[in-house]
Amino acid sequence: MPSPSDPDGRAVADQILRTVLASLDDSKAENTVSLDIQGKSLLADYMVITSGRSHRHVGAVADHLLRALKDAGFGAARVEGQASADWVLIDTGDVIVHIFRPEVRDFYALEKMWAEDNQAEADTLH
């Protein structure tokens, strides 16, 4: 819930993002990308995309992140895909985290999709 000093809740989103990035770094997640999507999507303020080396690593990164979020007081996030560990989606409400195996990440190319969206937006401004 936004506070009077931070009506848009951005400070909470920033704290969650810092927790996410620290946890991913601790778990040795690879090629982590953080995208500021505030104003571009109603889904969240940030999207984080990262990779694990294998099914087991993706699952471990997700488990570690869920514990870190809970320990930091951000409650239980919604999780999809943890059973297969090809692509785990963790949604905190303010930050959406995609943890992929490298082959799956290459196939879906989320960074490219968002980069194209940002480039199209920049082109319409000129």
Structural class: alpha+beta
Q: So how many helices?
A: 4
Largest sheet at a glance? 5 strands, mixed
As a percent range, the share of helical residues equals 40-55%
Instruction: Write the H/E string, N to C.
Output: HEEHEEEHH
Strand content: 15-25%
> Got a strand count?
5
Rg computed from alpha carbons, rounded to a whole number of angstroms: 15 Å
Organism: Roseitalea porphyridii
GO molecular function, one term: ribosomal large subunit binding
Subunit structure: Interacts with ribosomal protein uL14 (rplN).
Protein name: Ribosomal silencing factor RsfS
Describe the secondary structure blueprint for this structure.
Elements (H helix, E strand, L loop, with lengths): L9 H17 L3 E7 L9 E6 L3 H17 L6 E3 L6 E5 L3 E6 L1 H7 L1 H16 L1
Parallel strand pairs: 2-5
Antiparallel strand pairs: 1-2, 3-4, 4-5
Helix pairs in contact: 1-2
Protein name: Ribosomal silencing factor RsfS
Family: Belongs to the Iojap/RsfS family.
Subunit structure: Interacts with ribosomal protein uL14 (rplN).
Give a short summary of the structure.
Its main location: cytoplasm. This protein is of the alpha+beta class.
Explained architecture:
The protein contains four helices and five strands. It has 126 residues and is of the alpha+beta class. Helix 1 packs across helix 2 (55-71). Keywords: Cytoplasm, Repressor, Translation regulation. Its main location: cytoplasm.
